[in-house]
Every structure is written in structure tokens, then in C-alpha cells.
Amino acid sequence: xxxxxxxxxxxxxxxxxxxxxxxxxxxxxxxxxxxxxxxxxxxxxxxxxxxxxxxxxxxxxxxxxxxxxxxxxxxxxxxxxxxxxxxxxxxxxxxxxxxxxxxxxxxxxxxxxxxxxxxxxxxxxxxxxxxxxxxxxxxxxxxxxxxxxxxxxxxxxxxxxxxxxxxxxxxxxxxxxxxxxxxxxxxxxxxxxxxxxxxxxxxxxxxxxxxxxxxxxxxxxxxxxxxxxxxxxxxxxxxxxxxxxxxxxxxxxxxxxxxxxxxxxxxxxxxxxxxxxxxxxxxxxxxxxxxxxxxxxxxxxxxxxxxxxxxxxxxxxxxxxxxxxxxxxxxxxxxxxxxxxxxxxxxxxxxxxxxxxxxxxxxxxxxxxxxxxxxxxxxxxxxxxxxxxxxxxxxxxxxxxxxxxxxxxxxxxxxxxxxxxxxxxxxxxxxxxxxxxxxxxxxxxxxxxxxxxxxxxxxxxxxxxxxxxxxxxxxxxxxxxxxxxxxxxxxxxxxxxxxxxxxxxxxxxxxxxxxxxxxxxxxxxxxxxxxxxxxxxxxx
Amino acid sequence: xxxxxxxxxxxxxxxxxxxxxxxxxxxxxxxxxxxxxxxxxxxxxxxxxxxxxxxxxxxxxxxxxxxxxxxxxxxxxxxxxxxxxxxxxxxxxxxxxxxxxxxxxxxxxxxxxxxxxxxxxxxxxxxxxxxxxxxxxxxxxxxxxxxxxxxxxxxxxxxxxxxxxxxxxxxxxxxxxxxxxxxxxxxxxxxxxxxxxxxxxxxxxxxxxxxxxxxxxxxxxxxxxxxxxxxxxx
Lengths: 540, 234
Ligand SMILES: Nc1ncnc2c1ncn2[C@@H]1O[C@H](COP(=O)(O)OP(=O)(O)O)[C@@H](O)[C@H]1O
Ligand SMILES: [Mg+2]
What we know:
The structure holds two protein chains of two kinds.
Chain A: H1 2-13, H2 23-59, E1 64-68, H3 77-85, E2 90-105, E3 113-120, H4 122-129, E4 135-137, H5 145-154, E5 158-165, H6 166-172, E6 179-188, E7 196-209, H7 214-217, E8 220-224, H8 225-231, E9 240-245, H9 251-261, E10 270-274, H10 275-278, H11 280-318, H12 320-328, H13 333-367, H14 375-394, H15 397-423, H16 426-453, H17 459-477, H18 489-492, H19 503-529, H20 533-537
Parallel strand pairs in A: 3-8, 5-7
Antiparallel strand pairs in A: 1-9, 1-10, 2-3, 2-6, 2-9, 4-7, 5-8, 6-7
Helix pairs in contact in A: 1-13, 2-11, 2-13, 2-19, 11-13, 11-19, 13-19, 14-15, 14-16, 14-17, 15-16
Chain B: E1 3-16, E2 19-32, E3 36-40, H1 47-54, E4 62-67, E5 70-71, H2 77-87, E6 88-91, H3 103-115, H4 118-122, H5 131-141, H6 157-169, E7 175-179, H7 187-204, E8 207-211, H8 215-220, E9 223-228, E10 231-233
Parallel strand pairs in B: 3-8, 3-9, 6-7, 7-8
Antiparallel strand pairs in B: 1-2, 1-4, 4-5, 9-10
Helix pairs in contact in B: 3-5, 3-6, 5-6, 6-7
Bound molecules: adenosine-5'-diphosphate (ADP) and magnesium ion.
């Protein structure tokens, strides 16, 4: 193998004279690298969003809800809760009366909303859904001052206090201390058969529930467990037990065990619903999105691999006479095959490694909040570095000035863009980005031309400096993305675009990329090894 | 003198669709150990074709070639490759040096290829395994000791051809086959190249078969044969 490596590494590094990595190798490596970097980045964002959403949802979500199939009430819930809490892996369980009720404000003549109402014991519920953390105001359902005040002012039968979802409260335009009327049920009018009289209970708004999760803040209200039992005439009974686990991921596995531990009588038909079932559509949508992304990204890598294949086919053609001579010197078909496969595989490997580094670096930048230097410094870096490359390559003041003017243009355009990008009027942004892309392409072409002219003594230095500059420029420009500024924080329930690197996936994508690149080398290498020595020698 | 190579009734035809082009029509030729044999003939008569077949780069349509009584026309592709590496050195009209490698590396190349066959090297291999060491000595003996690290593009035509000669010698082949080695360089440089060839022949007892137009070259040869109409003329 040593001989093949020797020849392949030389083909990889240089043309004619001893020099640094050839530009065509660099382009192939960049092609593979960008593919791998985007895959890692996109998946890290998708994983981050999924993880962030989960964390957000689970902050105030019970992992398992235990109820009867007909939603009926059951007694003896204290013993059931004790038994459930004894199950390995259960943190806490809370008794809940869970139902839907119509509400209207004092003085209103009609039903204004239908809400989810949870009758709870605040201290117990706190252990399951961190209830108290999200309450703005009081949750003292029996003795809050506002209740006493309302009772005194209205001389009415006030059942107790209620904590309303903040957005629900906004919609109903109620403030703390206002009275809210709950329609508990309907009874047939004895005097007037066929007509129904609503049974109404009054509650005083004592606090708001602010979880920032629309599903809750829009629809939910909390009252005291005892009050809920009383209004339903179900004293000593509940219809749900809310359960928190040590590890939310085990919810489906533990459901059955918990059902058994609760020891319902034969006639009761218990059932559980896990948080996963509740959010199933959302998470399966995210999963689908991830699969689609992986497929698209695999295609990107495939394109990069075709790039490697075509580069190799070109090198094989360019090296035909060399192959003829090597065969004449006694190199076997295996040697020739090895040389070209090594060349392609090294490109694939370097590209994959470079891409992984870049992807992980950007992930790190997107999740790290530190002060960034002004983009001006980054721009100056590009300018100085490019001008020195061009200057040393061409040794002509005129050339350097022309390119300097071009960089000045990029520089100033960047300066104008930066403020505009924040405004993000879509069309303008698109135009600006297109402009930048055009300039960057021009700039890359100029750099490639001067790179080819650059004497090989300078190449390693500028290569290293260039990598450092790219790292620094990324550091200046790539910051955590604020969802708040983009107005997306309500939708995603997060302030900052979350990033989560899945190391297993990074390993997988590395292996995949390398395998694809390796496969792409087989055909060109085989083609080279099949050349007939004499014909190859006489190839023009 | 010992007989090194015996060519027996060698035929070679090229086929272009249905038409057959008979190039070699029964070549019989003996080559002796340590001689310089010049093959002359008109352009297109088949000199290169003959040389390629002797050098195992091509197979004859009919006939046999014996190296020390071993019939190489019966060899498999794999055996031929190995034989080429061990027993044959080539020098072409155009130097055919590998442009990415220095003079030293070019010369060492077939030694490096041989070193990949480890098993044989262990079992009584009579050659030194250090290809670079031998390459250096050879470059010195063709007068290029100052040029070891130069790339082909940094060498003159005559120098390149001398590197090519050194390259052909590195595995101490049974025979060096040269196809118009001075065909592409001027007269004065040719003399220097021919001096090198002669010197090596005399010092190392190296067998050469040289295809040429060049009458000065055939003057220096031990023996000259003419290829006429696909046969060796007497
Ligand atoms: N691969 C080939 N296919 C077809 N014809 C060939 C091939 N190689 C050589 N020839 C023909 O064989 C003849 C001899 O060629 P060659 O051996 O190169 O002649 P020389 O070296 O004596 O000038 C020429 O007519 C040439 O066109
Ligand atoms: Mg010829």
C-alpha cells in the first residue's frame, strides 16, 4: 500500500512542481465538506427545536393522565395515589377533577367561552406540573383577600377563587377580583317541563396562569379540588390522576404498570394517556421533516460524490500517459486501482472531516451567547488577506488596486446590508443576498486564479491564515438566532433558535458521506486500471 | 556468448474491423547476453511493435519469445506484470517521466513497485530493497548527481533522457529496450546520451536492444539487424 499512497498523495497535492494542495482537490473537498456541514447543521436545528419544544411542553405537562374510559368519577383516590407513587420511576401523582365548562362574566347575558377546568390541590399539583411557578397572582383558592372582598361587596354566594389562563382572561376581559360565572350543569324546570335551568357557580379571579404555551393559556382555569368536587356533587371522588415520572420518555412503558398499581375494581375501565399521545401529531410531523431533510442532504452528498467521481475521471484522463508508464515499469492493475481510489477516498475523508468541523463550529456559534467583534473587522480581514494573496501572486500594483476596489465594494455593500437584514423585508433581503453571492463568486474566482499563481512557499501559510480568517469571519457574523426578534417566539415557545448536536447522527453522517465518496472512486479507478499500457503511453 | 532471448517465428497483426494489417510476418532473432543490438528499419515497418512484444507490453499473434528458455508468451497477465517489473527496462523516444515526481523518485519508481511484493523480497531476493539508494547511484553514473531533487520540467531534453535510462536500470533488468532514445534530441546531446548507454553496457554488462534511425547509434552497437517487410533481413 505504501507505493500507492506515495503516488496518490503526490497526485493529490500538486501539479508539475512541488506545491501545496491542488485547487481541484480543494474544490472537491469543499464540495463534500459543504454537504456534510449543512446536514449536521440542519439536523442540529431540527433536533434542537424538537428537544426545546419537548422541554417547553413537559415543563407544565403531566407525563401520564389516569382516568376511566367513560371519564367517570372514582373514590378511594388517596390510596390509589399512594400506590402509584410507590411505583418505581414515579415522582408524584396529583388528584384532579378535570372537565369542560361554559363561562360568562357577571352581568353578561350569554355564554362567552367553554374552558377546561382543573380542580386541584395546589401543593400536590405543583409536584406534577410545577403549577405554582406559572401563576401570576394568588392561588389561595379559599381565603384570598379578593374573595373576602367580593363576598363583602356583592353579598353573593361566592364558591371560591379561580386562576385563569392569561390569554383566556384577556379574551374575556376580566381582571383580578372580577367575578366569573361557571355553568356547572342543567336541571329540568319542575314548573315548566322541557325547559332547563342552568346551575351556576360564582368564582372570583385571583390569579392568572402564564405558561406561554397557547394550549394552556388560552383555554385553562384552575379551581380548588374540594370546590370542584362540591359543584359536581362528587365529594371524596375525582375523575383523573395526573402523574409525573422521573424520565418522561418511559411514559408509554410505565402506563400499564401504573394502571395495575391503581387497583381499580372490575367494573371500572381505567385508561391512560401519555404526553406523547397528546402531542403525537406535532412530534410525528417533526420526525417526518427530519427524515425528509436527511434524504435531501444525502442527495447533496451524492452530488458532491459525483463531483469527486468526475474530478477523478478527469485526473485519470490527464494521467493516462503516467498510467501507461507505471504499467510499463511493472505496476499491476491493483496498484493503479489503489492509487486512484486512495486519491478519491482522501478527498472524501478530508471533505467529510472539514464539513464536520465546520458544521459543529457553526452549531457552537449558534448556541453561544458571547460578544462578537464588529463585522467591520471581519471585512477588513478578508480584504487584507485577499489583497496580500493577490499582491504576492501577481506582484503588480495595478492588479492589487483593482481587486482592492472590488473588496471595498463588498465591504461597503456589507456595511449597508447589515442594518437592512434586520429589517428583513423579504424582497430586499433576497436581492441583497443575490448581490452578495455574485460578489462572493467573483471574489472566489479571483482568489483561485491568484492561488494558482502563488508560489508554493506561500501556500501553506495562506492556507492556514485563510482557515483562521474563515473561522473569525464566521465568529463575527454567526450569532444565536433570536426568535423573539423574528416574531416567532410565540409559535415556537422559545426565545432563541435551539441547537442540539446528536453525536450519534454526526457519526452516522460521517460514515455515510465517506462511504458514498468511496463508492464514487471505484468506477474511475477501475477505468484507469483497465487502460492498455501501450495505448495509454501513446495517449495524446 | 550466452543466448539471452530467442525470438521464434513471431507474427503480429492488427485488426481494424475485418481488415487485417500484418506488421510482423515471422521474425526470428537471437539476442545475446551483454550485447548492444540495434534494430533499424523504415518508419512504420513495425520496429516499435516488435520492441513492445519483446517487452511484454503486447502479445504476439503467433510465435514465441524465450527468455533463458522460459516462454513468456505463455505467461498470465499477472506474471507478465511481475516479469516486466523484474526483467525489463524501457526507454522511450519521449522520456515519459512522471511530472509530479523528482528525478530521484522517477528513477526509484520501479524499485518501489518491486518493494510492494514483500514475500519475494524476503525469500532470497538478490536486490537491495532501498530503491532510493540505487536510484542515487544510477543518477550519479549518468552524470546527474546534481539533479536528484529536480522535477522533469526543470530538466533539459538530454537530461530527461538520461534520467529515463537510469530509471530503466534500477531493478537490474535482463534487458533494456530503447525505442529511438535519441529521436527527439539534438545531435550533440545525443552523443552524451549514447556515451552513457555505452558506458553502462561496458561497466554493467547490461544487454540493450535499441530501435533507431540513427546511424551513429548503430555504429556503436555490437550488431545491427534490419527489419524489412515484417522480417529480419540478412
Ligand atoms: N495499436 C495499433 N493498431 C493498429 N495499427 C497499429 C497499432 N500499432 C501500430 N500499428 C501499425 O503498425 C505499423 C507499425 O507501427 P510501428 O511499430 O509503430 O512502426 P515503427 O516503430 O517501425 O515506425 C504501422 O503501420 C502502424 O500504423
Ligand atoms: Mg516507432
